[in-house]
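Incident review: delayed structure delivery

Summary: a single-chain prediction request sat in the queue longer than the usual turnaround. Root cause was a stuck worker, restarted by the on-call engineer. No data loss occurred. The affected request and its eventual output are reproduced below so the record is complete for anyone auditing the incident later.

Affected input:
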Amino acid sequence: MWFTTFRLSARNLWLHKLRSSLTLLGTILGVASVIAMLSIGEGSKQEALDRIRSMGANNVIVRTIQPAGQEEGADSSATQPAMVTTSTYKINAYGLTYGDLRSIDALPTQKDVVPVMIKHGEVARQSQRMAKARLLGTTPNFQATRIMNVARGRFLLDSDLENMANVAVLADGAAQKLFGISDPLEQAILIRGTAFRVIGVMEPSDSGVARSGQSEGSDSNFDVFIPLSTGAAIFGFNEREGSRGSREFHRVELNEITLAVHATGDQTDSSRNVVPVANMVRTLLEKRHGGKQDYQVVVPVELMAQAAHEKRIWNLVLAAIAGISLLVGGIGIMNIMLATVTERTREIGIRRAIGAKKRDIIRQFLVETTVLSAMGGVLGVILGVAIPICVTLFAGMATVTSLGAVLLAFGCSVLTGIVFGVYPAYKAASMSPIEALRKQ
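Output delivered after worker restart:
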């Protein structure tokens, strides 16, 4: 009986190919939009989580920020940074200092404390140049607090800091820019006109990962790492503000301090201590800086929790928007089935007259709507899986298509067809056989 009903339903749908195809289109687009939107949303959120995770789940990062009183157009009553004025120039001092570094290093729950000084300037090798390269003066522990590995050569050593050696480690993009296919190890480069020897090349990293004071989207593959002591001795802490002829300078000793937290007592998960340690750092710096907001404490664990929460909300919003498309497809199925009931009134009367029961009529129309929605679901799944692949290939955006999203979209498609097919099926089964046979 079920096989006969299925065959009859398929034949009836085939008799009206154009109408069935247009009805399928609504379901196809609904299912495809659910899968595509969830995949793109999941990919973007996963990418954001990866960026945060790359900063180190067990790290507390403190960054220098420009005080509000020094920003262009700021209110003159805002807190001003420390200022040193002479007859020839003016120096605005703000941000993290070596005193802050020593205080943070004295905290009992830290494992590694890594300072970073960031400068920008030209890096050149013969005719190859990077005009505004990012120069990171740091310590050997920097590598341990970041997800990064050396591809060739070595990273900085304690002896490099002690001797204030003119050595540099190039990120993968910087090495390719300056040396092409040549081996950069033990070769000389000019950093702001000073000669440095290349001792290592880092492995490529995700270009979307922000490191060491970079803004979101900055490319860390073009960083140049040098010993902190060398950078402080050669480049100093003062940078001219504005044009070359300006007499105003800003003074920043350290742009970033990363505190790696370790487990205490019987704990095995050091991430449990991250938030308490971050609160200790906030309290410490607030006292040292007298309430001046020239630093920012970044806690990747907190950012990850916030990003995960926003991800769940965003997925619900996307699913709701895409679900509207499925609802429209369901309304289309109900509309076509109501029209089908009207057209096949005489057929229904004949079937009832020769002994068909109400449940047989209901089964016939429900099978038709189920077949229609299932076909639309299958085609929608194919299109929905193809769209994220195309987005990744042509737009370069990360997408993640999960089996759960596919099953959810297909299941909702079939369920929508059944729900919206109940009323037309019940209406067909409720017809009086005598009244139905009178229809021409």
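Verification: Residues 71-81, 207-217 have pLDDT under 50 and may be disordered.
Action items: add queue-age alerting; document worker restart procedure.
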